[in-house]
Request: fold
Amino acid sequence: MGKRGPKPVDLGLLNMWEFEWYKAFHVLRDGTALPGTQAVYAPPLHISRKQIRSWIEKLREMNEDDYLRINELTIEKISGEKGQALDVTNESDYSVQHSWAQGQKQNEIAELEKYLNPSTIPLKAERRQLWNALWHAQTLPVLKNICDQWASLRDVRIQGLIVFPNHILANAREFLRMKKDNRFPKSDSAAVDESRLEYLARGMAGVLANVSPMTGIERLRNMKHTEGGPLWRGVKLLDGSFAKGTESCQCWRCGLDRSRPAYKASSEAWWNGMALFMETAESKQNSGARSEQR
Reply:
């Protein structure tokens, strides 16, 4: 005879589905899966937009030989060691390095221009209206019309996210019911909107993990993220065991929190590297100008 009582909730499965719905709702509302990434791409405060515009101009004026030489001098500054001069007699090596320099230069110009002129999400106001209509929906015909519009968004189709409006329609009764609960954030305030998005993501995670929306919401909201929590474990070894001393919460939220400092550090390193490269280019240019004056 099997055990009586409610079946245990798979928090790993709940966690996975919450993350997927969190991203899907953000794509619907904002056009991007994870909020707040723009600040990560921003340069350190000592680098101004005026400097960035001047860098773009200088990179465009730079030929591949100049780029390679400046890159070599920059590496020498960082390492403190003399670099190896480019062998212009070796045509194959010279061609490869020229192609690399051309590609690097184009990529750097594109990255700098992306920061100065970030791409806007098409019809962003209309997307937010669609999101607002979704959480306000009270009847199946209205919900179906909204989900059809959601599924027709170009980026939603390209990213294969039409399954999410389809899941809502397949579970329309549960979706409409969870919004009638007293705990559903109903305020139109923008500050409350993120809490509402998380509520719906957790509720739909519950549905797809074969528990009620409210069970999903409450279990995820109250989940312990410290030692003893359901997803607290170390790095998995080849034999299936977990390495001691590497334990941490493996939920998606804690994973994002751990990755942000490293991602920000790598972004800052890129900007600081660009600053050093352009500083080296300016020094080389000034040095060349002084030589010509003599």
